[in-house]
Amino acid sequence: FGLIGERGRELREFLDHELDATLRARSVLVCATSDRSSMERARAAFTATAIAEAFRARGQKVLLLLDSLTRFARAQREIGIASGEPLGRGGLPPSVYTLLPRLVERAGMSENGSITALYTVLIEQDSMNDPVADEVRSLLDGHIVLSRKLAERGHYPAIDVSASISRILSNVTGREHQRANNRLRQLLAAYKQVEMLLRLGEYQAGADPVTDCAVQLNDAINEFLRQDLREPVPLQETLDGLLRLTSRLPE
């Protein structure tokens, strides 16, 4: 774990409540709280990555969780301004755009092992045009977008499936899985197009069978996409549920 710029209270809660004895025995935590210097916060991200690389060199399959690249970028921004760098795109100095790829490109496969890295990015006002988010999106293999609107409705995990994407989906899934994924996205997109009409009570069924199906299945889709934090679901069970759900979409 690389926890960059977190509040001390949140860090203590994470250590006390989220990591049990089994997880602690298999974990390494690198922390630099928000009151630490910008140099220390930026360095912590590289330290966590270096430790993951050391385990990978020993033949391990490592999961690297780094929260967050936004706070890493803010720390580097402070360093850049202090060293006299000009501010460029998005109000960030050039060193931020130089160091982001240097950091994230160190994850991945090697001859001995692998690092699977998950990075969090904080965006303002749910805008995907945030400069850090835009840059990171161009560097990584995919992104999972969390929606404030879904969270406000009590829909957890608050993942906006339509806005999330994997660039390696075809490499790690079969054709049946990919087809079901595409069909679910089709249903979500169709429902989003008529959502306002439904709220106004002006939607008329019968014009498009795909849209009619999306409206009929909306509650079932939302139920399928919800999951309790403490209740893990096997992958095959999730895939079976996805296939059953999308099989109702007309060809």
TrEMBL record:
It is an enzyme of class 7 (translocase). Keywords: ATP-binding, Nucleotide-binding, Translocase, Transport. SUPFAM superfamilies: P-loop containing nucleoside triphosphate hydrolases. Its EC number is 7.4.2.8. It comes from the Bacteria. Pfam families: ATP-synt_ab, T3SS_ATPase_C. InterPro entries: ATPase_a/bsu_AS (IPR020003), ATPase_alpha/beta_chains (IPR050053), ATPase_F1/V1/A1_a/bsu_nucl-bd (IPR000194), P-loop_NTPase (IPR027417), T3SS_ATPase_C (IPR040627). Residues 1-166 form the ATPase F1/V1/A1 complex alpha/beta subunit nucleotide-binding domain. GO terms for molecular function: ATP binding; protein-exporting ATPase activity; proton-transporting ATP synthase activity, rotational mechanism. This is protein-secreting ATPase. The lineage of its organism: Bacteria, Pseudomonadati, Pseudomonadota, Gammaproteobacteria, Pseudomonadales.
